[in-house]
Amino acid sequence: MLRLLADPELGGDLLLVGLALTAIIDHDLSWSCDIASIHHLAYGSRGPRVAIGAETREAETHWMNTRTARVLVDDIRRYRPPEPRRECLAPTPRKAACGKKATQFDWVTDWSTGEMRNLAACTKHHDWFIQQRKTNQETRPVVGEVPRPYANYGGVLARHFPEINWPKLWADLDPNWRPYPEREPVAPTTPTLRIVPEAPSKPAKPRAPRRPARPRLRLVPTI
Ligand SMILES: [Zn+2]
Fold this sequence. Notes:
Elements: H1 2-6, H2 12-25, H3 35-43, H4 56-61, H5 67-74, E1 104-109, E2 116-121, H6 126-138, H7 156-160, H8 166-173
The protein binds zinc ion.
């Protein structure tokens, strides 16, 4: 738990869900490791839901619509392009970038890495904007696939809970998800737990597999 609190990337809802996972995995506060159980511990049984209005009744049992599921989806390990720029990026004779408020936006791809770059231009630099897009499309390699960019976002909870089969969960949450390459190889671990996206139907499922027994205290003195 202390490691969770010390992680600067863990905050808000993500930290709440992480603490709920700690309660389940390290302290056995729930018999099952599914999204419903995590949600109960993080927000309470009547916690905030995403679906409202006419869909409320369905959302009562459809745990994929919960705030917990949204938090887990946002933490899916993936490549995320940089934040879009709001100012014109066209070079001028005096400046590296025009800097005026942009009115047209798009993305161009670095075909050698698969990474994306924002394109933004003001009305004055419309022609530059069109040319940049055209050049990018024309330089797309004809042969071979464009590489998948390195993952640079998400996977924060996965760092703390290697016993969970995260790729399986991410694929359950997003059927279009495929693993992204990592700049630094992830240490191989053997997951022993799987988060079940749907709430278990009654009667309840057997208990989720546990990690082997281990010493209660995990803090070690530092030199
Ligand atoms: Zn401009």
